[in-house]
Every structure is written in structure tokens, then in C-alpha cells.
Write a structure and sequence with these properties.
This protein has helices at residues 23-34, 42-49, 61-77, 105-121, 125-137, 151-177, 181-194, 199-211, 215-233, 239-250; strands at 2-4, 10-13, 16-18, 40-41, 87-89, 93-96, 103-104. It has 264 residues and is an alpha+beta fold. Among the domains are: 2-99, Orthogonal Bundle (Arc Repressor Mutant, subunit A); 180-264, Tetratricopeptide repeat domain (Serine Threonine Protein Phosphatase 5, Tetratricopeptide repeat, Alpha Horseshoe). It starts with a strand and ends in a 14-residue tail after the last helix.
């Protein structure tokens, strides 16, 4: 059986991929997945389940939590053999245990990223790029997409988002090491549009454009990025972005460029 959280939450098992139709059991599953192998108390689950609609919280919440656990277990029984169902009742609450029969797409993502790092450190540049690209292909949307998330799930989603951004940067750097600047331009334009305040993508886009002989376009990227930072955050660009700007103006290699000649 496989749990998937890199997008809408779903369970892949007997009969294919299935999603929970009811919101509360879905929140419950998301919280248990976010804190696998850790006991979540009933009070923690109450805070998670009714985070978005506290006024509608029923008076007798503890029995209601047990009902949602029962519904979730029924859902999982239809999706997996008994050895794969791993929600355990403890004296303090509930825990979703990791078992050899259960996989999680986020674990696979982290494993592929680490493989990419190891390959890159060892000089296996193509393999590194392939591992990063494979990791990003696992994403089907935002983490826990459409879940009415409480504090536990929101915190885990934020960590996953940060790891995804890091992987995007690593993939671009790996592509640069392979000399694939031109091929990176379209990806970086899309990333800067999706994350307009993320300076690393603006810097990478400026470098790719500069290497491809598009200095004017690189300067436009800097101008637009600086304007957004000043307007929305009241900040000036950081030193890495400013260094790339100076290199474009001077027509020299940007700091950290792996290729020692500019393509004009």
C-alpha cells in the first residue's frame, strides 16, 4: 500500500488510488501521516480536526474523534491487506506505524533528493540531475492539497514546500553543470512567476540568460525582481542577486558559474 501526500491525499492499494470523500477522516489521515510513528493525543487531534471551524466543534468531541478513526480504518480495510493497516490505539491516543508494506511518496522524494546530492558530490552530474528530476515528478500539486489543514499538517506542508524549492534549485544547478543553460530558461521563467520573491530563481534565470547572450533580458529580470522586493517587502536584493547583476553589467562570468566561457 502507498500513501500519497504530494498533492491531494490518496491511498494507492487494492483497486487502485482512492481518496477519502469526507473531510474529517481526511484531516485525521493527513495528521497521522504528518506525524508517523508519533502518538497523537485526542486533544491534538481535536485541535487539528476543528481548526478551521472551531465554533462548530461538537460538545462531546472525544467520542467523535473515535468515530472518525473507525471510519478511517474502514476506508483502509478496503484499500489494503491487514498487515498494511497500521493505525494503532495507545493509552495516549493514536499513531500510524511505519511498516515494510507501507510506502509514502514524500519518503521517496527525500530519498531521490539525497541520491541526487550524493551523485553530484561524486561528480556524477547527469545522474544527479536525473535523480532531482525524478523527485520532482512525484509532485501532483501542493502538499496535502485540499485538506482543511490544522497546525500539524500546515507545519509539515511548509517543510515539504521548502524541500521542493531546494530540489528545484539543485536541479537547475545540476543542469548548469551539464551546460544546459538554454534548456533551463523556460523552467526558470515559470519558477520566477510562481515564486516571485524567491531570489535564488531570479539569480539562476539571470545567469542562464547571460550565458545565452541575452544580457538585456537578464537585466529586466533583475529590475523586476528588485521592484517586487522593494514594493512588497521593503527590501533590496541580497548579495548573490546583486553579484549576478554586476556580472551582467560588466559582461563577466557570474560568481559560481561552472562553465568558464560565456556563450555569445
Amino acid at each position: 500500500m502507498r500513501y500519497e501526500i504530494l498533492g491531494p491525499v490518496r491511498v494507492v492499494g487494492v483497486g487502485g488510488a482512492r481518496a477519502l470523500a469526507a473531510a474529517k477522516p481526511e484531516i485525521l489521515l493527513a495528521a497521522l501521516l504528518a506525524r508517523r510513528d508519533q502518538v497523537l493525543t485526542v486533544d491534538q487531534l481535536v485541535a487539528e480536526l476543528w481548526a478551521a471551524d472551531d465554533p462548530a466543534r461538537p460538545r462531546q468531541v472525544r467520542p467523535t474523534v473515535h468515530v472518525y478513526v473507525s471510519r478511517l480504518r474502514s476506508f483502509l480495510r478496503a484499500s489494503a491487506p491487514a498487515r498494511s493497516r497500521s493505525i494503532v490505539t495507545t493509552a495516549g491516543g493514536y499513531v500510524l506505524r511505519s511498516t515494510p508494506e507501507v510506502a509514502l511518496d514524500a519518503d521517496e522524494f527525500h530519498h531521490l533528493v539525497e541520491q541526487g546530492r550524493e551523485a553530484s558530490r561524486a561528480g556524477r552530474r547527469r545522474e544527479g540531475a536525473e535523480r532531482y528530476a525524478a523527485a520532482l515528478k512525484l509532485w501532483r500539486g501542493a502538499p496535502y492539497e485540499r485538506v482543511e489543514a490544522g497546525p500539524i499538517v500546515r507545519a509539515h506542508a511548509a517543510r515539504l514546500d521548502a524541500a521542493r524549492l531546494d530540489c528545484q534549485e539543485l536541479l537547475v544547478e545540476a543542469q548548469f553543470e551539464l551546460g544546459r543553460y538554454r534548456e533551463s530558461v523556460a523552467r526558470l521563467y515559470a519558477l520566477t512567476a510562481e515564486y516571485p520573491l524567491h531570489e535564488a530563481f531570479a539569480r539562476q534565470l539571470m545567469i542562464a540568460l547571460h550565458v545565452c547572450g541575452r544580457r538585456a533580458d537578464a537585466l529586466v529580470v533583475y529590475r523586476d525582481s528588485r521592484a517586487r522586493l522593494r514594493e512588497l517587502l521593503g527590501l533590496e536584493p541580497g548579495e548573490p542577486l546583486r553579484e549576478a547583476h554586476r556580472a551582467v553589467l560588466a559582461g563577466t562570468e557570474p560568481p559560481g558559474l561552472r562553465t568558464h566561457s560565456l556563450a555569445h
